[in-house]
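BUG-281 | component: ligand-complex export | severity: low

The export step for S-adenosylmethionine jobs runs without errors, but we want the raw record kept on the ticket for reference. Input record follows.
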Amino acid sequence: MIRQKSFDSDAAKVYLVPTPIGNLNEMTSRALEILAKVDYIAAEDTRNTKKLLMHYQINTPLLSAHEHNQEKSIPMLCDLVAQGKSIAVVSDAGYPLVSDPGQHLVEQLIAQEVPVISVSGANAAINALVASGLSCYHYLFYGFLDSKSSKRKKELEGLKAFPYTLIFYEAPHRIAATCQDLLTVFGDRQMVLARELTKLHEEYIRGTISEILSVCDSLKGEMVLIVEGNKEENVFDMDAAITKVLALSETMKLKEACKQVAQEYHASKNELYQEALKRRG
Ligand code: SAM
């Protein structure tokens, strides 16, 4: 167990600072104050962050820290913290670590008991969710699905029964293919496509997956997909089905038990059989 009292000591700290997802004014005064006072800013792309810093007249030195240089950048940042230097970590937009670099760095800093402090700010998923009109009581942020349709459909199969709102990030050139896969795997649920959030051409398209699929090709810019959770009451429950199969298999052949339960649950007898074999060990 590691307890972090963020502001109890003078030890060097690392701040995770969100940056605007479009509208440059979406920086809190605390975030700006931290960017100005730290010794270094570790940025996903120093050229991008430089533009933000110039806008706010902040002169803190920038260091490059992204997925492709992390073998060097993480030890370098840990060394600087050990020397008493405080650091702000930023990505190109929104929160670092949220579909952006920073995960391994934060894990290592925490292991070294460095105070890691998050600062409030912009995030595309939450902006899209709260204005979507779909339920915000419970939700799952998934981020990017796989870029290959076969893998993407497998991921969606795993999410199909989930009863709460789902949030995906997607690149504009894959939006039609992803909506097509959503339709194939989930059926025609309600969804919202939120694009260009906080920018001049911000748009929310609220409708069914098939309606949104029909306009996808004409859409440009950055996009978040918010998809309604599974509302069917009799969602297939693999655990319950397998429990029944295993109970029945004490008095009949496993294949026969699978056939019987598959009929009752409108499920695949082969899938049940494979799963039952796995669980019987
Ligand atoms: N770290 C960011 C965050 O906290 O939201 C996410 C970065 S991820 C690399 C980029 C993806 O976020 C885009 O492909 C898009 O799905 C979503 N995104 C970022 N800015 C957006 C915006 N202004 N409008 C809609 N989606 C946006």
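Assignee comment: Attached the raw record above. The chain has a mean pLDDT of 95.
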